Amino acid sequence: MAKKKESKRGRRRNRKVFVIALLAIIFAEVGWILATMPGFRLPFGPGAPQKPTLAALLENTQMWVLTPRGYAPSGLQPPQYNDSVVVVTVSGVALPRSLLNSTEPVYVLMIDPFYGPYSFTAASYFYNELFGGNYSVAARYQNRVFLLMPGDQQSQATAVFQWIGEALAMGNATITATSAQQALSQLLTYLPIEAKVSGGTVVSVALGSAG
Predict the structure, then answer these.
(1) Total domain count for the chain?
(2) Measured between alpha carbons, how far is residue 187 from residues 16, 92, 123, 169 in Å?
(3) How far is CA 88 from the centre of its chain?
(4) Could you tell me which of 49, 67, 52 has the C-alpha nearest to residue 160?
(5) Domain that holds residue 151
(6) Residue 158, Cα to own-chain centre: how many angstroms?
């Protein structure tokens, strides 16, 4: 029994290390520079937090659509519902089950799959975590719960992560770190990020505790 518990903790720790390493690659790709002074806040730069808009996110993402084999990229921009919920997360972080009961459309933005096969890994995680890998169940929510990924262009990725930074700031997220690795580890602890959208603008943000 002890070995099983130890093995489970080890898998969880390895998964977290993997996610942090993958996020480090993503941040490098989009050209972000993490501050190294203690007490810095997101987003970077002076001034009060900006209220991110739904349009700014959707125009820089692409929608993944349900198929009998799971989710696949559509190459299309998601439909815009100005009263909705946006959930930002990564593979390995539990998705809020309550989102299936939402009376408003829900966008789930997976940020770990940036290029290549990681996109399909994240789509598979979303499909299995939320719908148990059951097509019939997922089909009931295909016009209510939307899977998003960052767009393929580097400028789109930059815009998506700027949006996330603004959402974190609205949630009063403070990252204190002396290295980029520590900063990314702390960022992971705020997932999932749940943003309430009203009239096309984020009006409130709730932060998770994945760490």
Answers:
(1) 1
(2) 12, 14, 21, 12
(3) 3
(4) 52
(5) 2-207
(6) 14
Q: How buried is residue 184: exposed, middle or buried, by Cβ count under 10 Å (0-12/13-18/19+)?
A: buried
pTM attached to this predicted model: 0.77
CA distances from 155 to 25, 51, 66, 118, 129 (A): 16, 20, 27, 19, 30
Residue 154: helix, strand or coil by DSSP? helix
Place of tokens 């050209």: 31
Cα-based distances in Å from 193 to 1, 22, 31, 48, 165: 34, 18, 22, 19, 11
In tens, the pLDDT along 53-111 reads 999 999 999 999 999 999 999 988 889 999 999 999 988 888 888 889 999 999 999 98
Structure tokens at 109: 């933005």
Distance CA 123, CA 149 (A): 9
